[in-house]
Specification:
- The chain is mainly β.
- It has two domains: 2-94, Sandwich (Immunoglobulin-like), CATH 2.60.40; 101-418, Beta-galactosidase, Chain A, domain 5 (Distorted Sandwich).
- 4% of the residues lie in helices and 43% in strands.
- The chain is built from three helices and 28 strands.
- The strands form six sheets. An eight-stranded antiparallel β-sheet has the order 7-8-9-10-11-20-25-24, with no helix packed on it. An eight-stranded antiparallel β-sheet has the order 13-14-17-18-27-23-22-21.
- The model has no long low-confidence stretch (mean pLDDT 89).
């Protein structure tokens, strides 16, 4: 027995190409009792109604539900407006699904991510570093588009793609703990983002997902003990200020790269203040949350170019300005192919469109606290109350493409993300 579900997709006159689409479906509404008991999510087939072509898809159950979840696929183009989901035994018997996104645990505090068998990135969560990060990040031409590490040049805390904040405080009127800089062991003014555990790792033909829990912890204050073999002991234990759930989704849109980062930060103390309103803390405002450091040859000081969604070009027109996205592109290596890294801010994020701390030396960071330029006035702190259940919930998309922002269709990709096509289940 097979069951069919028809989906109609309304692109509202816009052009879509190789775009991720997801729809929530409760298969219990469409299956008979016997089919429900034998349901196997790997037996779902999606077919383009006009051509009969199979479109690979991936079903992700919600929580503990077996039949209720999200079906995701990479839609080929806006020309395909109707598809069918077919559920039944052996629906994919004569069809080989793409390898898709695979996530391997290397056993050394790194997860290695492959898309269709090609190495794309590693998620590094080793406590030897000040916070977790993605590195390397391999672009569409097989080259690492972020700065190589270890790096002993400027700003050693700029590693790959990561989440950081310069000012997190649990007390009003006091400077916060700095989770931006590299920091020194034993300095209680600095903090570290510490991986706790992975809560979900999903692989499939359409996407791979890494979900983890992190602690944002102030450094322990140490004191020197000359007669002790260890020479140091903990004087004051650092506070855990926030608990974070971070979800990283890597989509199978080869050869381009599409990486979604969703971070939810909740107070671990009575109140957390982000960007506390105190004097002499200008550097702390150069914080994220989203932080990217591009490959050296892509820097604006070398062969790179900075552009934003509002028509700004160069550091002068983009640094400190509000924008829906910023694209940093250039030859990845001298004489090599031009790749771009576009970072996108979601409309649901606080203070969207965000300000950008984007510099010719290769850094760009989405920053809703930025006030270093007169065009971006200080909007004040953000207060998160534990009793009220407050949280900082931020979504970003990283799109790595060939060519400049026009060839890479960066604006269209932002539109596809924030205004997906309407899917009607019939």
């Amino acid at each position: 027995m097979t069951s069919k579900i028809r989906l109609e997709i309304d692109f509202e006159g816009r052009e879509f190409y190789s775009s991720p689409i997801s729809v929530e479906i409760n298969f219990e509404e469409y299956l008979k009792r016997a089919d429900k008991e034998e349901f196997d999510c790997s037996s779902i087939r999606m077919v383009d109604e006009a051509t009969g072509r199979i479109i690979p898809c991936q079903f992700s159950p919600l929580d503990d539900e077996k039949l209720w979840g999200r079906v995701s696929w990479i839609h080929p183009s806006y020309a395909h407006k109707k598809v069918e989901i077919i559920i039944g035994k052996n629906q994919l018997r004569d069809y080989r699904l793409p390898r898709g996104v695979e996530i391997w645990d290397r056993g050394d505090y790194q997860l290695e991510v492959f898309v269709d068998g090609v190495h794309v990135t590693n998620y590094v969560y080793n406590e030897a570093y000040e916070r977790p990060f993605l590195y390397p990040v391999i672009g569409p031409d097989g080259l690492n588009v972020v700065r190589h590490i270890p790096n002993f040049g400027d700003h050693p805390h700029h590693k790959g793609i990561n989440i950081a904040l310069g000012d997190v405080s649990g007390r009003r009127g006091e400077p916060g703990i700095n989770f931006w800089f590299l920091g020194s062991i034993g300095d209680p003014k600095q903090g570290r983002v510490i991986h706790q555990r992975f809560t979900r790792i999903e692989q499939g033909p359409i996407f791979g997902m890494i979900q983890e829990e992190n602690l944002w912890k102030q450094n322990d204050e140490l004191e020197h003990v000359s007669h002790s073999r260890g020479r140091w002991k903990i004087k004051v234990k650092g506070e855990v200020l926030m608990r974070e759930t971070r979800t990283i989704t890597i989509w199978n849109v080869s050869p381009m790269r599409l990486i979604d980062i969703h971070t939810v930060m909740k107070p671990a103390v009575d109140e957390v203040i982000l960007n506390a309103d105190v004097e002499h803390k200008e550097m702390a405002k150069e914080n994220g949350p989203l932080v990217i450091r591009v490959a050296d040859n892509m820097r604006g000081t070398v062969e790179g170019t900075i552009v934003n969604s509002e028509g700004g070009r160069t550091e002068k027109e983009c640094w400190g300005r509000q924008a829906r996205w910023v694209d940093y592109y250039g030859p990845v290596v001298p004489g090599g192919p031009i790749n771009g890294i576009a970072a996108m801010d979601h409309p649901s994020n606080v203070r969207h469109p965000t300000g950008w701390h984007v510099r010719d030396y290769g850094l760009f960071a989405a920053n809703p606290f930025y006030d270093k330029k007169p065009e971006w006035p200080d909007q004040g702190p953000i207060y998160l109350s534990k009793a009220r259940g407050d949280k900082l919930d931020m979504r970003y998309r990283i799109y790595i493409h060939r060519g400049d922002e026009k060839k890479g269709r960066v604006e269209e990709k932002w539109q596809e993300w924030v205004k997906p096509p309407k899917v009607t289940i019939q």
